């Protein structure tokens, strides 16, 4: 029995297997490898025998022991808060500026894991998270930092953490053409993107 090693995450799209290796900060796609991967109830992925397993083993992406528990992948979001009205408080401004300063310190070209931060220990009420995220969406264009989805999501996650809040940071992929994307969501609600855009992406990592 072999498993995707710790830090390696997968999504099955039709018959294709898409791999994200966090250590290498790289994506891989095996066009016919999806049928050989079984996602377990503990969040890990077991790889059955065959040429796909041999290919993954040669690439150093497998291990014999089941990896530690990982967060279950959420369903695709059904709604978004980015069009909702929101008032921005001084606390929101402080959290946004602190998040921008923290993310700006990350060197250019750093991998995905460089943007991860420790979440609050206690879960927060959903309305509190949605209010803070909506306020941050209004504030974000004025922050002294720019970037694509990785930076934007890192900023929101950091700003939430500074208010003792947390949400799911989701990474997804699509094929034809291949593209990777990430967003932040809570339950079935996306906090920093349109759901129409996300419908094309299959989640493969939730943090």
Helix and strand topology:
Elements: E1 2-4, E2 8-13, E3 16-21, E4 26-30, E5 37-39, E6 45-47, H1 51-58, E7 62-63, E8 79-80, H2 90-104, H3 126-139, H4 149-161, E9 168-174, E10 179-186, E11 189-190, H5 195-198, E12 202-206
Q: Bin the strand percentage.
A: 25-35%
Q: Quickly give the structural class.
A: alpha+beta
How much helical structure, as a percent, in the residues?
Answer: 25-40%
Q: Give the N-to-C terminal Cα separation.
A: 26 Å
Weakly predicted, low-confidence segments = none
Shape: elongated
Please give the radius of gyration in angstroms. Answer: 18 Å
Could you give the count of β-strands? 12
Determine the mean pLDDT: 89
Describe the main β-sheet briefly: 5 strands, mixed
Question: How many helices in DSSP terms?
Answer: 5
Helix/strand order, N-terminal first: EEEEEEHEEHHHEEEHE
Give the strand line-up of the largest sheet. 8-11-10-9-12
What number of structural domains do the residues give? 2
Brief account:
The chain is α+β, with helices and mostly antiparallel strands. It has helices at 51-58, 90-104, 126-139, 149-161, 195-198; strands at 2-4, 8-13, 16-21, 26-30, 37-39, 45-47, 62-63, 79-80, 168-174, 179-186, 189-190, 202-206.
Describe the structure.
The mean pLDDT is 89. This protein has 207 residues and is an alpha+beta fold. α2 packs across α4. 26% of the residues lie in helices and 25% in strands. A 5-stranded mixed beta sheet has the order 8-11-10-9-12. It is elongated and about 55 Å long. A hairpin with a 4-residue loop joins β9 and β10.
